[in-house]
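Marked as duplicate of an earlier ticket. Keeping the data here for the record.
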Amino acid sequence: MNIASSLLAASLTLVATAAQAEFTLSSPSAPEGTFQSENILSEPYGFGCSGSNMSLALDWSDAPEGTQSYVLRMHDPDAPTGIGGWTHWVVVNIPAHVTHIDAGGPLPSGALETRTDFGVAGYGGPCPPENSSHKYVVTLDAMPMATLPEAMISADSMPALIGFITEGASLGQASLTLTYGR
């Protein structure tokens, strides 16, 4: 192979690599980038909101090669906690063949909701303090294992533990930032 052929082959490889699709996440529940009333925290939580606390519908595509499961997290970095925000939803062990979660569930077989900063497992919708607007970052990590380590993970696992394991092993990440204010 001569130099011109080698350069052409290298150029085509770069173009093919650049043409690979990007791992994306979207929500039909929030088409304009903001939560709907059904996704807002419900009154029994005692934070002053009166939504239906229904989890978001989510769609994703083009996960990285080698993906065996997903970890989903929803976090409010603007929450005035003094410790880096508030985690509203964590779901681990979402099977690799899944590319959609329906609003309000049910979750795919094998998936597990873990503890949030509300102190319980499950979805907790947004409810920022009055007269403020917050960002909510929904992140989906592609994982190289079918399940997170069972010896460490249960419905009672803290968001920081899930984040630590996920950040260290993720093959790629897709995220979506939504807002809500009141």
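See parent ticket for discussion. Residues 3-18 form the longest helix (16 residues).
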